[in-house]
Write a structure and sequence with these properties.
The protein has a domain at 287-433: VC0802-like. The chain contains 13 helices and 16 strands. It has helices spanning 4-15, 31-40, 44-63, 69-87, 94-120, 146-156, 187-198, 232-240, 251-257, 311-321, 354-361, 389-394, 422-433, and strands spanning 22-25, 124-126, 134-135, 165-169, 172-175, 180-182, 203-208, 229-231, 260-265, 274-277, 286-301, 329-331, 335-341, 365-379, 401-406, 412-418. The strands form four sheets. It has a six-stranded antiparallel sheet. Strands 7-9-10-8 form a four-stranded mixed sheet. Strands 1-4-2 form a three-stranded parallel sheet, sandwiched between helices. Helix 4 packs antiparallel against helix 5 (94-120). The two termini are 34 Å apart. The model has no long low-confidence stretch (mean pLDDT 91).
Length: 435
């Protein structure tokens, strides 16, 4: 969705398949970042400069339409509304941020619906996703209300999807009370999955800027390979543990309805992508290796743990109270170590505030280690594959490993290493187990 050329490429992909009926779009490239800057800005001149960039970007796309007049007026209204809202002197709140961020998808979907009409010559309806995507009231990371989404889809989508293509927005929604919400960064894929679930789609296609799901990040090693077919469980593990191709929540709706998922490149659509299915023909022990940076290891010590109950409940109640989400956990008789995703770009950015630490320090000793990375080996039956751990950790005999989680899932083996060693660890393991 970067520009008019990219949008026309996407429209051509849709045109080639009559069964592509509901199209969910993200904001044009870079727009969400600009809108975030607009929300954060306190200076009038700075805001005007950002607004000018947003306007210029979208009017450039509009001018490349065959019939720009068809959407120019509607786009001007949206941009004027954005300017009016952003220039108001109000306290910056999560609700206000959701309102401002929503304009990216609302503008791009308007432009894309016209481009799709011009490319296909077919009827195209622009649907306001907020009429269907009903969520709770959590601004910035709203949870979908599945029953209400299905009800609204039956009202707004199913009666018309057979007679025309429908274009709508990802990422944005509306609470039951009518408040604007968003599903978190990367939420367009998640929105598409929720829409697919609501209409009982056969296939969900994710068209992105990469050609497929890879065995690891190609930027880390040139030996990374595209994966032709991967299971839901494996793909879910990969997305959770650092793979950037899919939003971590995308797999969940597809898994619930057993909807096949295809990941392809909108830039090179002729190159085969990746099918994500319930059962794969091949089930290698290690299919892929993912890397998640900016991890924090929190370790708490207390003699109160020794042969007593209730300590873990107390620990996790404090974390829950402050909305701290934990990823991996290991325990000993008197210690608990757990990992937190402290990357600022994580779907939910975890922050160990002084308030959290003071509360923990009141009943245990606390240690914090930062600048760590999480390595995840993703595959099949890892918990029951004899002789796996020895070769894995033997290959890393010179690397300091801080935490290991193995056995809780049959699809992953995870551990922490220092940030500076992370990419080399991925290269070593990829060469040994996948090349």
């Amino acid at each position: 969705m970067a520009d008019a050329t990219a949008m026309r490429r996407c429209a051509s992909i849709v045109k080639l398949d009559v069964d592509k009926r509901l199209i969910v779009v993200s904001a044009s490239s870079g727009t969400t970042n600009l809108l975030t800057d607009l929300f954060n800005s306190l200076k009038s001149d700075e805001k005007k400069n950002i607004l000018a960039q947003i306007k210029e970007k979208h009017f450039r796309i509009c001018k490349n339409l065959n019939n720009p007049e068809a959407v120019e007026g509607s786009m001007e209204i949206l941009l004027n509304d954005l300017e009016e809202i952003s220039m108001e002197k109000q306290v910056r709140t999560p609700k206000r941020k959701d309102i401002i961020l929503s304009f990216g998808e609302r503008i791009s979907s308007l432009l894309f619906s016209q481009i799709l009409l011009e490319e296909t010559g077919e009827a195209v309806k622009l649907l306001d996703a907020r009429d269907v995507m009903v969520t709770d009231g959590t601004h910035g990371n709203a949870a979908p209300d599945l029953d209400k989404i299905a009800e609204q889809a039956e009202k707004y989508i199913l009666p018309e999807i057979g007679s025309q293509r429908i274009v709508t927005q990802g990422f944005i929604g509306r609470s039951v009370e009518g408040e604007p919400t968003t599903l978190g960064r990367g939420g367009s894929d998640y929105s598409a999955a929720l829409f697919a679930e609501a209409i009982n789609a056969d296939v969900l296609e994710i068209w992105t800027d990469v050609t497929a799901v890879y065995t690891t990040d190609p930027r880390i090693t040139s030996h990374a390979k595209p994966i032709t077919e991967i299971s839901f469980d494996e793909a879910a593990e990969l997305s959770v543990f650092g793979a950037k191709v899919l939003h971590p929540a995308t797999m969940v709706p597809a898994m619930r309805k057993r909807i096949k998922v295809y990941v392809g490149s909108s830039i090179e659509p002729e190159i085969p992508g990746t099918w994500i299915v319930r059962e794969t023909a091949e089930k290698p022990p290690i299919r892929a290796i993912s890397l998640r940076r900016n991890q924090t290891l929190l370790t708490v010590h207390s003699l109160d743990m020794l042969h007593r109950h209730g300590f873990l409940e107390k620990l996790f109640s404090v974390l829950a109270k402050h909305k701290i989400s934990v990823d991996l956990v290991t325990t000993s008789e008197v210690s608990v170590s757990l990992t937190l995703d402290t990357d600022v770009n994580a779907p939910v950015h975890q922050v160990l505030t002084d308030e959290v630490l003071d509360e923990l320090n009141s009943f245990c000793q606390v240690e914090i280690e930062r600048n760590l990375s999480l390595i995840a080996l993703v595959g099949n039956n890892l918990h029951a594959t004899a002789g796996l751990s020895g070769p894995v950790f033997g290959a890393l005999k010179d690397i300091n490993i801080r935490l290991i989680c193995h056995g809780a899932s049959s699809h992953n083996l995870c551990f922490l290493v220092e940030e500076d060693n992370a990419e080399n660890v991925v290269r070593v393991l990829h060469k040994k187990f996948i090349n």
